[in-house]
Write a structure and sequence with these properties.
This protein is mainly beta and 66 residues long. The protein contains no helices and three strands.
Length: 66
């Protein structure tokens, strides 16, 4: 996704974005119905990124059910 027409400077005056640049990521999600509740583990690998991008290779989500 892309957004346009926003203020591209952060609080320190640094330019966050100057235009559209595509990025490529591959990933895998594993869903597990554990005794503690549903758990989702997300694994990802960046194939193409831009300077300043925040890279996150693992994410864990635990959900409760009522």
């Amino acid at each position: 996704g892309s957004i346009w027409g926003i203020n591209t400077r952060n609080a320190t005056g640094v330019v966050n974005s100057t235009g559209f640049s595509d990025r490529h990521v591959v990933g895998l999600s594993i869903f597990w119905s554990s005794p503690f509740g549903p758990i989702r583990m997300n694994f990802s690998n960046v194939l193409k990124k831009e300077p300043g991008d925040f890279e996150q290779t693992f994410d864990l989500t635990v959900k409760t059910e009522f």
